[in-house]
Design goal:
Elements (H helix, E strand, L loop, with lengths): L2 H21 L13 E8 L7 E11 L4 E12 L5 E12 L4 E13 L5 E12 L4 E13 L5 E12 L8 H21 L3 H5 L1 H20 L2 E10 L1
Parallel strand pairs: 1-3, 2-4, 3-5, 4-6, 5-7, 6-8
Antiparallel strand pairs: 8-9
Helix pairs in contact: 1-2, 2-4
Length: about 230
Amino acid sequence: MTPRAAAVHAVVAVLLLAGAADARPGGSGGSGAERRDLDVVASAQPSDQRREDRELVVREVTVRNAALKADAVATTTTACHTCRGESAVLQVLYVPGPASARFDNVASAWTQDCWDCTATALAVQVVVIGPGTRARPTNRALAVGDACATCRTATAAFQVVVQVDAVGRLPDPALAEVAAWFEAEAALLRTAVQAPAARRRAERVAVRSLDDLRRLAVRSLGGRARSARVAVTR
């Protein structure tokens, strides 16, 4: 692992574990926080003044509501020559229930009127629900290039919903594994916009990655996967 990759991994792991601490009773993130709408957004918008822009957002929270809607969104817009934009969001939600819940996970990347510019977006949503929760998950990825012959985009959206008998948070070792998985997927997207061969096999790789995430969540919690979805666009 390169020093830069190690530093990124460390940051993601720290963010996840800090979020885990907030999700415990008494934490500022609020185990049992009474919130109906939970929106987590990572947004990257490079410009001529800032040619490389990257935003990574990690959030872990327990929600106790009878009805809730949770959105995880990663969006990148690049419209300047040779600019690089990258957004990545990871949302981990625990819903003890019983509840009626909607979960929406979206990754979108847009390039316009630029040459040699790139835009990537990664959205990951991991949801743990109890047996009394009705879950309605949606998962989407969108990549658009407009008026640019040499621009490149790559997006991926991963969503896993796991049902368990008694909802509890992921153990710290499992959170560290999720952090490593998340970092690896972001690195794959960066590679995909640089190497045509990587772009062609991206969907096949994404399906294997989804299986890895699903197995990790199920193994760590002893539950079963209610939904596991991936969407990839280039």
